[in-house]
Amino acid sequence: MVSVAAGGTVINYSSRFSLTGMTGTFPPDVVTGLKSVSGTDGPPTDNQVAGSAPGDGPFAVPYTMQTGPTRYAPMQPQPGTSITAKKVTPLWPTSAVTFAKTFLPQPTIQTTLTQNPTYGLPSIENDASPAPMPNDDMQKFLNRWKD
């Protein structure tokens, strides 16, 4: 079976089988090839699909053009190391809003899957000292609400 993907093809071979009760002859090179075959396992899968880049597959289809119960959202871009933008621009185009004037049909979208990030965010320990306990005046003020 040949499967076609975005980056190439995958060929899956079935196990070998025998036919009986057939009449006729094969050319000599076919007979030689048949004698060299042993066992019933077919050849291994031939995967010729190139490694897919992030965003391929269902995540590359614009959200508003997707149909079915599951929608696919693209990965959030990797945040920068500093804020340089002076004006905020949207990442994706906005969608129109229509307010319902009558009852709407049952929704057809059941879930939205967001693509996993291909980057990692480091985390560091917060080594700031905790705030000190309140002083006497503040403690008296806070004690008013103690029950």
Automatic annotation (TrEMBL):
Residues 35-50 have a biased composition (Polar residues). One of its GO terms (biological process) is (1->6)-beta-D-glucan biosynthetic process. InterPro entries: Kre9/Knh1, Kre9/Knh1_C. The keyword Signal applies. The keyword Signal applies. It holds the Pfam family Kre9_KNH1_C. GO terms for cellular component: extracellular region. Residues 59-136 form the Yeast cell wall synthesis Kre9/Knh1 C-terminal domain. Residues 34-59, 113-137 are annotated as: Disordered. Keywords: Signal. PANTHER family: CELL WALL SYNTHESIS PROTEIN KNH1-RELATED. This is Yeast cell wall synthesis Kre9/Knh1 C-terminal domain-containing protein.
